[in-house]
Amino acid sequence: MLRECCSLPLDLTAIRAHAEKVGETRGFLRAAEQHGVVSSVAAALREAGGAIAEELQEGVRSSYKRQSLATLSLCAELFHVAAMLQQAGVEFVATKGPVLAVRAYGEPGARRYVDLDLLVCQNEILRVCELLSSAGYTGNIPLEAVRSGRVPGEYIFHRDGTRAILELHTERSFRFFPRPMPIEDFFRRKTTVAVDGWSVPVLSLEDEFVLISIHGAKHFWERLMWIGDVAALVHNCPQMDWSRVQQTAGDVGAERMVSVALLLAERLLRVGVPAYMKGEVAADGACLSIAKKIETWLPCAGQEPPALMQRALFRFRMRRQMLDGARYLTRLSLSPTEEDWSGDAGYSNASLRESLSRPFRLARKYRRDRKETN
What we know:
Order of helices and strands: HHHHHEHEHEHEEHEEHHHHHHHHH
CATH class of the largest domain: Alpha Beta
Structural class: alpha+beta
CATH topology of the largest domain: Beta Polymerase, domain 2
Number of domains: 2
Strand content: 5-15%
Helix content: 55-70%
Radius of gyration: 21 Å
Number of strands: 7
């Protein structure tokens, strides 16, 4: 039922048939929320009309209303932070969140998101962190760590009195890019998107597509919403320059990640691989087996994470060449984030001990996560 509501174009007859089989509304709503696709379900049921049971329709409307209120708050926070950065002369772009909702679905409330993502240059990150701190935001790492050059997985900020979470990213914190992000090129190609009448700087459509493909791979494509985003961009953005997507993916080593993203959208949500990309996707024989593996854990919506060795193998297979895959896996396994920083190391550069202890911390973490979900 969830897949049918996210497929494009909608098959209203199939949606009505699946809706009749929904036996327990609360369980269905819980699954829709876990997969982050409440807005897609709400839109599909509106299209399907009165043939849907009232209890199901009312439950979806209530869930969508709660999500819409949360997205309104986050949009207001985006405008507040964007105005602050623009006044300070900081170059930035917004990614994912409300800008992706507008691009993929036509309105900022048509997609679930719980935080705001902004991309700035690494050489500006200290100034931005200091600016946010002076404006009443609290960061997840001390300013002293930023001043010393430590790079966390993300720079997270929140403001007292709000539930808004702000995540700052740089070309160095986006560590799941197989090759370093060419941020100067990304910024050179940036454009704007209108969000509730506000002009927000964003990545080019093609660069955003590559970024969300990498982001989906980072999270093992465990939630349907990430595949739905890919499908919606392919279906609703005919202006997408697929030669530019291919070029950007090659620049950052994400060719297989993009191919897997397109194949998942085709296999699960009926959105065909664009003609320009068909040959590349078909030529990479590993993509099909990767997509099939993802389909086995997708129903769990992240509630039963892959085991450690499955995760490692998945990372390894995200690159086409074995040596590239080994390098990618090794870098992710040994590059410390803020969770690995040791107290006695202060805020100096990452110590060898932090790098060597990281795999053991990850093993404990994912073993514990699996026990908690079983």
